[in-house]
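Recap from last week: sequence in, structure out.
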Amino acid sequence: MTYFAAFLVQDYGFNEGATSLPLVLIGTGAFFGSILGGLIAGRTYRLLGVAIVSLGGGLAVGAIFSLGAPIWVVVASSLVASVLLTVPMPVLMILMLELAGPSRATASGMFGASNQLESVIGASIGGVMLSIGDFAAVGLFGLVASALSALMIRFKLQKSTELRKG
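Predicted C-alpha cells:
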C-alpha cells in the first residue's frame, strides 16, 4: 500500500489526483478484510486461514508490481490483495489476547508498538528494494515477506496445540 500511488504514477502515468479512486478501493478492501478476519478469528481453522490468505496476498502483490497487467486488472488485484493482507490483523490480535492471560494490556501495547516498527522497517526495506530493482523488486519483497509469514504461521500451527484451539 505504501508504494501503490507512486507505482501508478510512474508505471501507468497517473497524476496524483487520478490515484484517489484506486486508493479508495484499496482502503475499502482493507476495511472488508478486517471484517472477514474478525469473522474467522474464533474459528478452529483461523491460523490455517491466515497462512493461506497471507500467501495469497503476497502472490497478488508480487503479480501487481511485476507483470505489467492492464491498469484495471492491477487495481482489481490490489483490491483483492488489500482484503487478503488485512485478514490476519484481527485474527492475530485475538490470538495475542488469548495467549497474554492477565497481561493483556501489556500485550496490546506491544502489539501496537510492533505494528509501528513493522511499518517503518517494511517501508525502509521496500525503499531499498525499489532502488535496487524498481517496483518488481518491491513486489518480490512483498511476496517473500508474505510467504515467510505464511510458513511461520503454518509451522506454529503444526507445533503448538495451544495455538490450535479455537
